[in-house]
Amino acid sequence: MVMTTKHTSTDLELVDIRIREALKSLAISDVAITENLQDLSMENIRRFAETGGLGSCVGKFDIMAEDADDLMFLAGERIIVLKYLFDDQYLGYCEGVVGNFNAENVHFVELDPRVLDSLDSEQYSEGNDYYENRRMSDSWRSSTTWQSDQMDGHAAASTSSINSFPSEGGRDRPYYSRTSLDSSWTGSSLPSIRSRQSHDYARPSIPWHDMQNPMRSSQSLSKLSSLGNHSYRGAPYMPSISASVPDDLESFDTSDMNETYSDESDHDGDLSSATANKKEKRLPAPPRNFTDPNLSTRAKSVVSDIPISEAYVSAKVDKDSPLVDEYGFMWQSKKDMPPPVNLILNKATMKEYREREVKWLSVVSKMDVGTAEKDSKLKKLVRSGIPASIRARSWQFLARSRDYSKPGLYQSLLQGAKGNIHTVIDLDVARCFPNHVHFMDENGEGRKDLRNVLSAYAQYNSDLGYCQGMHCLAGCMLMQMPAEDAFWLLVATVDRYLKGYFGPELSQIRIDTAIIGELIREHQPKLAQHLESNGVTPVMYIPSWFLTAFTLSLPWSSVLRLWDVFYFEGVKVFYRISLAILEICKDYLLNCRSDTELLTFLLHIPHKYLGPDLLLETAFRIKLSKTDIAKYARKAAHMDSSVAGLPFESGLENLKVGNNHSNTSLPSLKSLSGLGKRIKSNRQPHTLPR
Amino acid sequence: MAARQQQQQGTPAQGKTYQFKLVLLGESAVGKSSLVMRFVKDHFDEYRESTIGAAFLAQTISLDDNTTVKFEIWDTAGQERYKSLAPMYYRNANCAVVVYDITQAASLEKAKAWVNELQRQADPNIVIALAGNKCDLDSRRAVETETAQEYADEAGLLFFETSAKSAHNVTQLFTSIAKKMPLDQLADQSRNKTKGLNPRGVDLSRPANPNNCACKKSLIVL
């Protein structure tokens, strides 16, 4: 339904047609991008795309790649136009991948203003709405870094906001937060961040969002203000940004992506992070600097047509400004920011990534979740990470959140009476991922959604109400999906995967600390002995790991990979990850000679040790069966005085959720992999907008 | 700030270092973590993540040229539901800071409940301080200083109104606790103590975890 929505606005058609004409007529032969992908350096292409390419368009449909040179994209996804090829074929860049696409499958929404500048202005008559609008938008565009011709003005603006940073901001690290001792952010810089407007923190528009708001897209598109560089109101990462956009400029403007990209490159090309790509798409390795021989050649040739020069880029370098990583978390300095993990280093990994994406699309749209759970191939697929573009749908699919959802219930729960619980919720809403762009604005959509989801849950399950830790779960979900979807996923997660964890006695977490104690003794006897002799027990670190689903303890790249597996295999993966963390840190811990040293480390493990690949690999090498966990649960319930008498049944039920360790695989992925090229989204009704 | 200076002034290698376990209790969002953060890092975050489970940090202060006190601080989650975990943290605590928010009258009631629980369940010698935090928000004050002071006197607690944000009274709070600890007596006790959350007899003369500069170069003398 959404996918096939036709934008009928005359204005939109006009924009589309004119941009296409402009691109075709543009003398871009000098641009050092050839249609032969084999000859290209990904870095060069990406570099060009980051700075905006020639413009951008938005996919009308989900397009599967037919051959390796084709671009795959989803409806609503933004594609940077790199070059006009022939007929209706263009070269585009989407989510870190370069490929050919057909103009029929997209809407051109924006032509890079620098390209416009390079066109003969006489080519278009004065009074043309398109350009009128563009000029109009220039007036406020000057407040963003994006326009090279506005650089001076901007530099002044940004400098002043930097100066307004509290000077004490970066001096000390928060001693606990989702960051570690190794990497810290500074919340005190938030106010000034807000004042800096959208551009630094903008994120690419998100496919699900577009899909779910077809009307909004077409309406705002029809305003033609999309030529500006403001963000799309309501897009997951831009609540505060959109708040700063004048009402009459509310726009479907995906160009924020450009800004993000350019900002990334601003920081010595550490753009990888810049991909600020919530979807965790893979990007090529970041260019280390502008002296890259290929790059400089490339930059020169681009400059001939389009003013993308070193000067332009370096003028925008703003070394003191806070940075946003690929997941939307802000960092005070580049040194603190984790290195990007989602890199596509070559064509083979890109191809592999795209294949996984296709498989996942097949899974969530065609497979029965019961079948999926038993599929050992799918298990492998999950463990290698769900592609970011499919992640929200996949979590909901695996968690069966659709089984829980009842149309209209979420909205009616929101009408429910306010009670004490809401005050408690508000206290945590203000303290949930405060360094994430989605939640940094006090009055932003992110916090509003979070409050709504948690309040609705407290109404929905009044026995449980609200328990601290749920806010971390809901916060993570809201980074991936709209509020109502997040609500039902929270319901499925708390009621099915994490039964007993958030109840009045926190009984399950207390049982878990006993279970983990036993597991460490079994798997790491030497470490167990060392920890015990120093008086360090699992109750000191396990609650903060489990009750937040590790969102406060692991680097975000690992959190997402862990959640992928969690929704497939259930809570068992929490035990695995706990053991894996201890194993990875074993040598360090064994060298600690006091409880202070041990605890200081364990409660703030530097993120660099806990990257997703090592962590998951270690976790899945550990031989751990649900039977063992159940055995220790029973033992704890009967033997351990600190948990004796607590109900351990919920824990055993949790263990039944998800993949049941069966190796019987059903024919599934293979038969699904030969998909047609176009998947209509309405085959998957539960992912449609409500 | 002050804590840090004191730490530098002191040359603990020459004197005695006493190690105490301190637990922070109090209702959600009264500023427990911020107090610790101010004390240990002399830093304040307007936006700070909720504490889930518990957080741990250590800080060393010098009382005089010969006496250094090292606090191992357990900062706990405030929500009522987490109460069931609290005994794990206060079980072997030598001292406690019970925090309320001067702008929230209910938070003082909660603090009183914590004090009762500590007096009933914790180490009978535990030193308890009551801290009325957020005193920078005087215009929104809901708990009068006298009210709290009266209660503190009655219950035999140290009492300070603090502001983690402005750093008001934060160092004084912890220093007063340190001074109130029966140092010699506790040192004797701890000599034989080998189990529990905070075993003594740890040799801290070896350089500590570089991440934890607060306890570097400390010596413990039992």
TrEMBL record, chain A:
Q: Which domain of life is it from?
A: Eukaryota
Q: Where are stretches of biased composition, namely Low complexity?
A: 217-227
InterPro entries referenced in this protein's UniProt entry, alphabetically = Rab-GAP-TBC_dom, Rab-GAP_TBC_sf, Rab_GAP_TBC_domain, SH3-like_dom_sf
> What are this entry's molecular-function GO terms?
GTPase activator activity; small GTPase binding
Per the record, which residues fall in region Disordered? 142-227, 243-295
Q: Where is the composition biased (Polar residues)?
A: 157-166, 177-195
Q: Which residues belong to any copy of the Rab-GAP TBC domain?
A: 385-570
Q: Which PANTHER family match?
A: GTPASE ACTIVATING PROTEIN AND CENTROSOME-ASSOCIATED, ISOFORM B, RAB GTPASE-ACTIVATING PROTEIN 1-LIKE
> Which protein is depicted?
Rab-GAP TBC domain-containing protein
Automatic annotation (TrEMBL), chain B:
Q: Does the keyword Nucleus apply?
A: no
Subcellular localization, per the record? Cell membrane
What highest taxon heads this organism's lineage?
Answer: Eukaryota
Q: Which GO terms describe its molecular function?
A: GTP binding; GTPase activity
Q: What is the topology of this protein in the membrane according to its UniProt annotation?
A: Lipid-anchor
List UniProt keywords, sorted A-Z. Cell membrane, GTP-binding, Lipoprotein, Membrane, Nucleotide-binding, Prenylation, Protein transport, Transport
Q: What is its main location?
A: membrane
* The UniProt record lists the keyword Membrane: yes
Q: Name one Pfam family in it.
A: Ras
Signal peptide coordinates:
none
> Which BP terms does GO give this entry?
protein transport; vesicle-mediated transport
Q: Name one GO cellular component term.
A: plasma membrane
Region annotation Disordered: residue ranges?
188-208
The cross-references to PANTHER family, in alphabetical order and at most eight, read: PTHR47978
Could you tell me what this protein is called? GTP-binding protein ypt5
Question: Which organism encodes this protein?
Answer: Mortierella isabellina (Filamentous fungus)
